[in-house]
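Running co-folding for iron/sulfur cluster.
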Amino acid sequence: MSSDPHNPTSSFAQEVAREPGGEDINKCVQCGICSASCLVATYERRYRPRQLIQKILLGEREEVLRSELPWLCMTCRLCEERCQEGVSISEIFHAVRQIAAREGFIPNTFKRTINTLMEDGWLLKDAYSDMIEDDRDDLGLDTDLGWNNEFVKRVKERYLEGGTSS
Ligand code: SF4
Ligand code: SF4
C-alpha cells in the first residue's frame, strides 16, 4: 500500500474505486470513527468497517470478496454522518458486493433469502399463515394475495430474465 493514505495503490482499491459507489475508497484515513459508530459492529465482533476498508486498501481481494462481512452493512449511514473525510462507506460495501456477486460470491444466507422470496413471495417462508388469512378476513381485506405473486413475477422479468417490465 502507498504510504499516502489518500493515494492507495492496491489494484483491488483501484478496482473498487472504478465501481459505482466505490469512488470514495481513497479518501479513508483509517481513523476508525466508522467502526466506533456502527450498530452492526456492536453486535458482530468480526464486523469492523474500518478494517474492511483497510483490507481493500491493502489489496486483500480474495478475502474480502469471499467474506460475508460486506453483506452485513445495513446501509444506516450512521458512520457516514460522522466520517470526517466524507467517505460513503455503505456505498463502498455496495460496490464490493457488486463485484462479489458478479464473481459468484454471494453468501448462502442471502441466496436462500432470494430463493425464498422468489418461490414464496415472502421473505419468511410460510409467513402467510392461516392466522394472517383469518385476520385479513376479519378486517374485510382480500385474503388472496395474488398481488404478491405478480410482484415476484415482475421482479423476475425485470432483473433476472432481462425483461423491461416496470
Ligand atoms: S470514519 Fe471515514 S476516514 Fe475514518 S476509518 Fe471510517 S471511512 Fe475511513
Ligand atoms: S452504514 Fe453500514 S458500516 Fe455504516 S454504521 Fe451503518 S451498518 Fe455500519
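Result summary
The mean pLDDT is 84.
The chain has ten helices and no strands.
Job closed.
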